Amino acid sequence: MSGDFVRRASTFRERVANAEPGRYHLYVALACPWSHRTVIARRLLRLERTISISYAHPYRDRRGWAFPGGEFSDTAEGFDFLAEAYAATEPAYDGRVSVPVLWDRRERRIVNNESADIVRIFDELGGGELYPEPLRPEIDALNELMYDNLNNGVYRAGFAGSQQAYERAYRDVFATLPELDRRLATRRYLTGDRIVESDWRLFVTLVRFDAVYHTHFRLNGARVVDYPNLWGHTRDLYQQPGVAETVALDQIKRH
Known about the structure:
Blueprint: E1 24-28, H1 33-44, E2 52-55, H2 83-89, E3 101-104, E4 109-112, H3 115-126, H4 136-151, H5 153-158, H6 163-183, H7 197-216, H8 228-238, H9 249-254
Parallel strand pairs: 1-2
Antiparallel strand pairs: 1-3, 3-4
Helix pairs in contact: 1-3, 1-7, 4-6, 4-7, 7-8
């Protein structure tokens, strides 16, 4: 066996053409980078009054993502565990219970559990700020570069089942970071002078890198602070209005 960590594909992939206020609910965990980017999109695209939200506890045991109460309560259905949403949608479901989840409160079912789809759904509802048509080929190419080599690359290293798989992931991560740093040497954001979804895909990984991935996932070849342009990019995005409140480093570390 190769020992490579393979992320299982999301199961529920429906779209939402328009959002009736109060109908759709977002289940997330701020500890999770895939969730984090949907939280950022919801905030930046001013959908907080349209899409309600519940935050799962950062600690995930064998029972999965949980809502034990307080700030970690399910304000839509009163679920104790996110697995209940999956069972309500598909009683025979035996796949991975993951976040984020976009939930239809009226039909009591999961609409989508793929973060990339949810960000695009939110962008369409919010006016297309993050995936502008003229930049789509460049955004798609950046997303493809970053997903396997960096966004999921850190997990390929951290969850590798063999030394060879770990080394492959390690090489991919530390080939991609300097490549992106060089790109940012000549432009403020990844595609130029405006923030697009690729910037946020990068941000949720970079903001976790030094605190968690560098040590916990044994990716200690360099830190984000060692790349001047990536570090500046991270600080720039962190200071965008409303973004700092979505970065829960205490939960990220606990998770």
